[in-house]
Amino acid sequence: MRKISLHGGHSGQYCDHARDTLADIVEAYHLAGFECVGLSEHMPPFGDAGLYPDEVELGRSAGWMEARFALYVAEARELARNYKDRMRILVGMESEWYPGCARWVADLRRYHGLDYVVGSVHHVKGVCFDFSRDAYDKASAICGGTSRMYAAYFDEQLEMLRETRPEVVGHFDLIRLHDPDYLQTLALPEVWERVMCNLEWLRDAGAILDINARALLKGQPEPYVCAPILDAAAKLGIGVAYGDDAHGVADVGYGFEQVEEVLAARNMKGPEAFGDGVLRNLCG
């Protein structure tokens, strides 16, 4: 598998829950032998209601975050120029999905001329579920239980896919984050039907599925996405890409070999071999 990461590059400069400078992280990708890396800092929030709890504690505002994001894009483009003869760098962002942000994602993409977008869902019913176990339990309670939270997550993910049309779909099954019985929950008919609906959208749209190794870093037994979803994606011929979701230099390339084994076992292809889409052209 070629060393390509399409979900990486969160830095302490531009993400309050990350570490290290963007330049140091990019250098780490180069030293690790990556030939193409997609930088995907989180998008600035659509209004102060979209701030994460740590950002609120630090006194951030949506306007301040937007200005910082512009600095990220400028530095990322400079790094792309500086590394152009050594490593291809894509300048993108990881999106959010909560009420009111669909137009905002499109505006950010257009205004900053981003190379691509990683479409992720971190909220259910407007509640961020992945910030902590307490937040996860709160989202579950609002939805009326774990299986209903999964169903709501995949419904909102489909809305995100249709409205923002991301080139890469980030950590597709992140909703299993704090569910030790996630395989059983995913197998429930009302959940699995939604999984398949969303995978079929990916196939029809030519989007790339992020195989996200951060789950391994957090002690989970397999990456996002898990084996049954990967098996279904393989049967549908969906393109995939490794993502370390790095939040610092130490995370760069984490779990690459394990993801490579998982994908090789299913003969799944990376973005460089997937049709004539934008990511194939960008990755070379």
UniProtKB/TrEMBL annotation:
Pathways involved: Amino-acid biosynthesis; L-histidine biosynthesis; L-histidine from 5-phospho-alpha-D-ribose 1-diphosphate: step 8/9
Catalytic activity, reaction form: L-histidinol phosphate + H2O = L-histidinol + phosphate
Keywords annotated in UniProt: Amino-acid biosynthesis, Histidine biosynthesis, Hydrolase
GO MF term list: histidinol-phosphatase activity
GO terms under biological process: L-histidine biosynthetic process
CC terms in the record's Gene Ontology section: cytoplasm
Pfam families membership: PHP (PF02811)
EC number(s) stated in the UniProt entry for this protein: 3.1.3.15
PHP domain span: 10-213
Family the UniProt entry places it in: Belongs to the PHP hydrolase family. HisK subfamily.
Protein name: Histidinol-phosphatase
